[in-house]
Amino acid sequence: MSQRVRLGVNIDHVATIRNARGVAYPDPARAAIVALDAGADGVTAHLREDRRHISDADIANLAAMLRERGRPLNLEMAVTSEMLEIALKHRPHAVCLVPERREERTTEGGLDVAGGHNWIAPFVQKLTDAGSRVSLFIGADPLQIEAASRTGAAVIELHTGAYCDAARDGEAAQASEILTALRAGATLGASLGLEIHAGHGIDYDTVAPIAAIPEVAELNIGHFLVGEAIFVGLAEAVAEMRRRIDAARVGS
After folding, report:
1. Cis peptide before 142 (omega within 30 of 0)
2. Which of 3, 97, 109, 177 is deepest in the core (most CB within 10 A)?
3. How far is it, in rounded angstroms, from Cα 151 to Cα 174?
4. Can you list the alpha helix ranges (DSSP code H) found in the chain?
């Protein structure tokens, strides 16, 4: 039987909706509970430097609540001293280091681990020493994957945004080429002892080919699920994604 793929639900955009009116609802912590009850294995939240959605208080609440429930929090964060201090304070189960530019709408690419090794590796070490499992969000580039393995990180998360965009735009040849690179990257990363995660831009129509990659152990999905929740509710959106991931794995 194929290994079950874990599903991490990113609740950032529940906070985006809340912040649009400057009120206390909808509560990301409540969304986390709904997602977990519907079949998610963990919760992901990105504390951005500009605090455009998730806040410091959200991270404190989520870390405490999920620890009490014995469920993992995956904190996405930029490689900055401020974020390191926050992560060391709350000690989430996992930390995913991501690139961040304030003018971007969402994370547009992977970390340049090869070029930033001397800055990134000490972060990995400090977070690992504090008990967090560290992931690096990167493209499926052999140079970056090999560099990631030298930082001491336990996990890489492969950026699936370009594949999802090409697939949705009907660019079949381009999507196939990117998917081939993702598969090769997953194989290479696993051969180097890294656990393989994937995420960004995934929806119902693009999840199956990614979930079917044998080395992928976890998918992190957020924006689509929060959007779909407007029509069917968050629990049903998460449950349907869970069903599609499991079906893809059984069929792979």
Report:
1. no
2. 97
3. 31
4. 12-21, 28-37, 56-69, 81-90, 117-129, 142-149, 161-168, 172-191, 207-211, 223-232, 234-251
pLDDT digits (tens, 9 = 90+) for 153-166: 999 999 999 999 99
Looking at the annotation, which residues are catalytic? 46, 76, 200
212 C-beta neighbours (distance < 10 Å), count: 19
Q: Is 196 helix (H, G, I), strand (E, B) or coil?
A: strand
How far is the C-alpha of 92 from the C-alpha of 71, rounded, in Å?
Answer: 10
Domain ranges of the chain: 6-251
The architecture (CATH level 2) of 6-251 comes to: Alpha-Beta Barrel (3.20)
Indicate the residue type of 221. Answer: I
Long-range CB contact pairs, 248-252, < 8 A, 24+: 248/207, 248/208, 248/209, 248/210, 248/211, 248/212, 249/2, 249/3, 249/4, 249/5, 249/211, 249/212, 250/2, 251/208, 251/212, 252/2, 252/211, 252/212, 252/213, 252/214
